[in-house]
Amino acid sequence: MTAVQVPELPFVLEPVGPEGGWTYEEGVLTGSAGAKQDRFVPPGGDTLEPASDAPRLLGPAPEGDFQLIARVSVGFAAAFDAGVLYLHVGEREWAKLCLELSPERPTICTVVTRGHSDDVNSAVVEGNSSWLRLSRIGSSFAFHASPDGERWTFVRLFTLGTEEERAAARIGFLAQSPTGDGCTVTFDRIAFRPTGPADLRDGS
């Protein structure tokens, strides 16, 4: 597996996990999950189950506040197929902002994993694409979604890991197909801003 250079990003992306066939061409990043691939640690049970895995493409987040933005399009075929902006701060400390078939309608969903994963559905989306935004603001992270990349809806604010782990955070992209035979996702209009949003809830 080889690194992928996306000109819009100030860092190189490295494949992590199962093979995702990641390619970048003419502004479009494409990756695919295989059958039954997911990154989720079920919250139930008395013992810590091993984390499942899905293809990821990650790079080191620069210091300070930032915004990672992309429009994701998903070739939905089965429940919970998704394209994801992904944040990794530790083996059991990571988060996903997803456009997911959940389970019958495209939906903005989030997962924050602290040992075990939670699972939260947000707004239903018309069609198979949406803009997603992952931001760091100080010691916190924020998720937003948008139908057009102009007006953003606040989805979630959270923190993860220690200060040292957050400083070494990796960010990027993920494809998943937990119940299906595979799923292809594309990311375009990719952008990186070295500042956080001015206001989390005013649509900017």
UniProtKB/TrEMBL annotation:
Pfam families: DUF1349. PANTHER family: REGULATION OF ENOLASE PROTEIN 1 (PTHR35332). It comes from Streptomyces silvae. This is DUF1349 domain-containing protein.
